[in-house]
Write a structure and sequence with these properties.
The protein is of the alpha/beta class. It contains 18 helices and five strands. Helix 9 links the parallel strand 1 and strand 2. The radius of gyration is 21 Å and the shape is globular.
């Protein structure tokens, strides 16, 4: 079935911009249009229409950034009936208008072609990306000497960077948290925060301190001129990023802050300077009040917050997919979830918790 699905995805990608119809897809696949639509949604957790819309919006964003083609021409090229319709779709997806994005490109969450057949472990870090990360590090060191702290999202990224010796002499620490899960408190890393987070993760205070707090001692104890935040573009990473930036604001950090967005499938990196201000309030609105903040956000953080608010719903696209495949062996279901919902960035522990809860419901 997965080979049939990949053939369907390949055909849809070949017809993103012209000559697409469910009838034509059905004829190509040898099934009815309804069956193709049903199986696509069942296997991917998203409708064909939504998949095509996200892909076209993302591809249009690349052209906005890299070409001078007029916005109205891009609108028509990517299948929108008017510039206004394109603008609404773009802003609804990224939280910023096409014209504003073109004037000041900012990191976006990527919507890549689905690959049902990709195996875990297929990827190895490209040497060109390793060199690019090294170049970014050299630029920082030239500007701030060694007075730099790199904060990496999670132990896995930390170990990957350590394995490739990407940080050289700079200090670097992992942020071992999953802020998209469980409750939190307004004052970050306070006694209340630690108790709430440890309880939510169902670990002792000592275990929480060992896993999360001890690695962050350089952040708590030293005064760096520059802090570089290495986080991915998925929901998990963006909620963690928001938490770290809110903490820097809370303690009155006055140095430079850079966000190095890492696409964890390829280790491509995009650099953005973050100006502190308002993130503490955004943190409370999102993680405590569970609502979309009023402030303007980086598009990638806006996308992460939208996904987080969707993730908090009892019935969301992830739970809907799991319910349809609840009888599958857990390892197969986990592999499908990793492939189909990479934009959430969830790990096996988060997915297993959801699966077990749905089985008990």
């Amino acid at each position: 079935m997965k080979y049939m699905m990949q053939e369907m995805i390949d055909w849809i990608e070949d017809h993103l911009f012209e000559d697409f119809s469910l009838e034509s897809l059905g004829q190509h696949m040898g099934y009815s249009p309804y069956y193709c639509s049903f199986k696509f949604h069942q296997m991917t957790g998203i409708s064909i229409k939504r998949y095509m819309s996200l892909r076209k919006i993302y591809l249009a964003s690349i052209e906005l950034k890299e070409t001078n083609e007029k916005t109205i021409e891009l609108a028509f090229k990517y299948g929108f009936l008017s510039q206004e319709a394109f603008t609404r779709a773009f802003k609804g997806t990224f939280g910023i208008s096409p014209n504003a994005f073109r004037k000041k490109p900012q990191p976006l969450q990527t919507y890549v072609k689905l690959n049902i057949n990709r195996r875990e472990g297929d990827f190895m870090m490209d040497i060109s990306q390793k060199l690019k990360i090294g170049a970014l590090q050299h630029k920082m060191q030239d500007q701030f000497d060694q007075d730099i702290l790199n904060i990496l999202n999670g132990q896995m990224m930390y170990e990957e960077f350590y394995h490739h010796q990407l940080m050289e002499k700079s200090d670097y620490v992992p942020f071992n948290e999953a802020m998209c899960s469980n409750d939190t408190s307004a004052t970050l890393f306070s006694d209340e925060f630690i108790q709430i987070r440890a309880s939510g993760h169902q670990v002792s205070l000592q275990e929480y301190e060992k896993i999360t707090l001890t690695p962050l001692k350089p952040l708590f104890e030293n005064n760096y001129k520059c802090i570089v935040l290495w986080f991915g573009d998925d929901m998990f990473c963006q909620i963690n990023l928001l938490t770290v930036v809110a903490y820097l604001e809370q303690v009155g950090y006055e140095g430079k802050v850079y966000f190095h967005m890492v696409k964890e499938a390829t280790y491509e990196v995009e650099e953005t300077e973050i100006q502190l201000g308002g993130y503490g309030e955004i943190y409370q609105q999102v993680l405590m009040q569970h609502r979309l903040p009023d402030a303007k956000l980086m598009p990638v953080m806006y996308q992460g917050i939208l996904l987080y608010l969707e993730y908090l719903k009892e019935d969301n696209e992830i739970t809907a997919f799991i319910k349809k495949h609840i009888s599958k062996p857990q390892h197969e279901l986990l592999q499908q979830l990793f492939h189909l919902f990479p934009h959430y960035g969830l790990g096996d522990l988060q997915y297993i918790k959801i699966i077990e809860a749905l089985k008990q419901a």
